[in-house]
Structures are given as C-alpha cells and as structure tokens.
Amino acid sequence: MLRRQWLAASALYLTASTLVRSHSGTLFGFQDSSEATSLSTLATGSNVVASVHPLATAAALTMYSKGGNAIDAAIAAALTLSVVDSHNSGIGGGCLAIIRTANGQIYALDGREMAPHLAHADMYLRNGKPDGNLSQNGPLAVATPGQISALYQLSTKAGHLAWNELFAPAITHAEEGFAIDRVLASRIKSEAELIRQYPETARILLKADGAPYELGETLRQPDLANTLRSLAQHGPDWFYLGPFAEMVGKWMTANGGILATDDFARYECKFREPLRTRYRDYQIIGMPPPSSGGIHVAQMLHMLQEYPLPELWRSKPAEAYHLMLEAMQLAFADRAHWLGDSDFVNVPKGLVDPVYGRELAGKMSRTSKSKVPAHNQPPQAERYFFDDRKHTTHLTTADNEGNWVAITSTINTSFGSKVIVPGTGVLLNNEMDDFSIAPGTPNAFGLVGSQANAVAPGKRPLSSMSPTLVLDANAQPVLSCGAAGGPKIITAVMRIVTATLDQGSPLDEAVAAPRVHHQWQPDETIVEERMPEVLKDELRKLGHPIRTIGASAIAQAIQRTADGKLHAASDPRVPSQAAAWNTPEPAPSAPK
C-alpha cells in the first residue's frame, strides 16, 4: 500500500510540475536506456529543483506551491533527505552552500562540522600507529554537526516561509514511513554488520530479527520525527543549547566519546567570502576553505582553458579526457599538501592565480600521462592566504525571482559514524575521518593530507564538497551544479562545467556524460564503465592505468538558457528526480 501511495504522490507532484520529460537513447556512451541506472530526467519551468530522491524533490515543490522561494524549497528538500536518504546526509552532519538571492547578493555558507574541544592530533594513534576505524566508526568519529545551524541561517536571511513550515514533509515521512528504494536497501545490506555493533542504530535500520530491510519495505522513524518536530517548534536552540545537545553529551560520556554538550554551544555557522575566479568568458563562484572543491575546480579550469577543449571534444574526445586527467593529478597533489581549514592554517591564494594555472598547464602533456612526484609552489605562498578571521548529497533549486541555491550536505561515509543516540533518531556524522589522522595515512576515500589538515579543537575538516555557481558576462547565473562522492565531487563538477560551457551539451546530457577521475594518490585513472571502449583503449595508449567503476559521483544541476528558461537535471546513476513548478498567473482584474 505504502509503495502505491509513494508512487501516487510522485505522480501528483510531477503532474503539478511542467515539462518534465525523460530521455533515452544515446547519451554520451549510454547505448540505450537499459544501460542507465535510471532514466535521466530534465525539468523546465519557472521554479525548478533537482535532488537525489523523488520525495525530497516533492518536498521542494510543496514549498513552491505554498508561495515559497528557492531557499525554502532547498531547505525542505535537505530536511527530507535527512529522513529518506540518511545514509548520505542529515541533520547529524554538515553542509556547504552557495546562494544567490533575488537582489544579486551571493553568499558562501559554511555549515561544516567542527572538531570537539577535547580533540587532538594524536587521538587516533594506538601503539604509535593510526587506527582508521576509530575515525570512521563509533563515538570518536563524530564532529559537532552544522547543518541545522546553516539551514536556519539560510531561512532567516532569504526565505519566504516560516521555519516550522519547512519541516512538514520530513516529519510526515519519518512518522508515517516511506518505501525503501534500491539504493538505501543496498546500503543497509552492505553496512549491516557494522550497524549491528550499535544497538540503537540496529533497532531503527534493521528488522527485529537483525535482517536488513528490503526494497519496497517500509521504514518508520518515530524518534527522528519527534526530533524534527521539536526543531520545527523551538528552532536551533533546542539542538545546540537544549535537550538534543544534552542527550548526545551524556551518551558520549558514557560510551567513550569526547563530543560534549558544550561543543554544541560552541558551534558557529559562518558566512565566508565566496571564491570568484574566471573560466573563458564566465565567472565561477565556489566555496573557499574548508572546502577544497572550490579551489581545485577553479585550479583545474585555469589549466584547461590553456587548451582548445571545445575543438577537442568534437574531434579528439580521448585527448580532452586525457587533459582533464592531467589537470586532476596536479590539482590533487596540491590539495594533499596545501589545503586545510583557513581559520587554522595558511592556504595560499596563489593556488587560484591564473598565472599559476598557466604554469601548471605547461607541465601537462598532450601525448602521454605525466608523472607528478609532488605538489607545486603557487606564487607568494608565504604572503597571501584565504582568511576569514577579519557520503554526501547535492541538491539545487532556482526560482523566477532570481534566487539560486546549490547545497551539498553530508554525514561522510554511509550512515556516518553508525551512531544514533537513543531517543534522537539522528545518525551522527563521521567527519573526523576527513582530517589527516596521521601524515600520509589515507582516509576512507584514499585521500592523504599534511599537517595543514591535522586534527585540532574547533577545527573544520577539509571537504571535497563543491557547490558551484556560474555567472555570464552580465553577472547573471547560468549554471548551478554540485555532486556527492568524496573526492570525485570535484572532478564531476569540473566535468559538468566543461560539458555545458565548452561542448554546449544540453544539461541532462552534461550530467549523464561519462566521467573520469584521478586524485594523484593512488596513481590510478578511474573511468566509468559506461564510457565507450574505444575511448578507454585510447586512454590506455596514453599511459593511463585504468580502473573501471559503475558511477563516479552523483550530481545535480540547473541551467538558465539564452531564452531565459530554467532547466533542472538529476543524475541518471541513481533514482533521482528533477521537477518544476510553474507559478500560477494572477487572475485578470475585472473591468471597471
């Protein structure tokens, strides 16, 4: 019954949306629609949304139908994802967002988690050796969540609707339950052994006999519904200064954690200066540190604009992919050395200097894979810094008033730390693993880091989240995009930007296009299996050691085309959904 209700609700929302269509046929390597995980979906209208889950997309449409704007829609979608996509993101984690308001103001909102005040650089060493399990699972893996603070700041700054209205869809799905899709069913099954180690998490995410939930079965989360209801009624103080912080702090003390009640009171969401760079005739707006994504998307684009990519995509696509991989190696080598929380370490602004981009471009080869032994030295690395002291999901919304939101949320790896404190229903993050727990020690995504990203009290771990906004020569937004997928976020965003700006691809094709990834260490070229074999063979001939995977990141995007229309595209790699809501025209006034 619930499955039919879910399908009926989705159909209702899609009926309300306009010009929603699915595409099949050849899409950059899809031989037919059966090869895709789901059909790519493109929606066109005056108010649009793309998210990783149909129920989150439906929540956004509900806000539009109530007179809300893109900010309200994004918040409602993010809260709903806390319920229906809890393996990726939630109110127990954090987020980064780029927002452009109707009056043209652009904000970079940092809701990244913060290390507890008792955290220290050696906390994951046991007998002198780093223990990655401690930073990935259990109470020591948890940093202070930032998402609720960030969403509240966003709502009060630019939303139309009341804070409590934005919670209604999420509360309903937590209270009444929802049908588990194949992605969530697969994640629960793959993590079941770890989940069983945490009794409260097992009670909620597994059946009474300890078996994983199956596709189409109903998952109800009454404790999470109560938490969301309290947040809707009492605001973020209930979370950071009241009962939620007290419950978490008490549980941590009893279970060997260091996250304390007063760590919640110390949490601070920050509005940072957006990172503004240029690519060809466009302005690229990205996140500054603690995001590495904004810096390295810009850095790679600076390298690539030295090459004739538009022509190469038409005549030699293997060379275009090869050049992207060359840029990725150089950028990720710099990431490993230079990047960290700019409130704690000096991150050189020279990393995004176009002159440095041209210098790095000169190190790239068009004929074979280059060796990148170490990081490079940006200009004036000792003088000018980014400084604001004067598993993951992405969603994006835009409306007919000119509001645009690109928000990437995460609790890090699947189901975060696996910890749910009894009575809360909230999965807590394992963002402490995004620090460098020891020099040269890879985290869960295989990324290495330096002292710049070492653990410290109150510090924010380095992030790959890359919410991105592109402006045209008139400073008008033309593209918003972001992705989920650890370090593959950065390279997926760069791929979508080049597909739209250099290739002129329709938005849905840009999101569906095969992706490649290289993060310097390990030295391997990751290619999606859907890439045509002829391109894989050509990359091998250029010296790339290829490893094939099913999907490299999950992305969402919005584009404004030259005719002024808004288009939203969701990723075909999962059962995601893009949709649109057309604001009703006002009724004509009666003649006098």
Describe this entry's structure for a reader.
The chain is 34% helix and 18% strand. It is α+β, with helices and mostly antiparallel strands and 592 residues long. β15 (393-398) and β16 form a beta hairpin. α2 (54-65) runs antiparallel to α3, α3 (70-84) runs parallel beside α6 and α13 (293-304) crosses α15 (317-338). The protein is globular and about 60 Å long. The relative contact order is 0.19. The model is unreliable at 1-40 (pLDDT under 50).
Q: What is the tally of helical segments?
A: 19
- Indicate the radius of gyration in whole angstroms: 23 Å
**Helix content estimate:** 25-40%
Indicate the mean pLDDT. Answer: 88
Strand content: 15-25%
- Give the overall form: globular
- The strands making up the biggest β-sheet line up spatially as 1-2-23-22-18-17-12-11
- Give the structural class: alpha+beta
How many beta-strand runs? Answer: 24
Low-pLDDT runs of 5+ residues are: 1-40
Ends distance: 53 Å
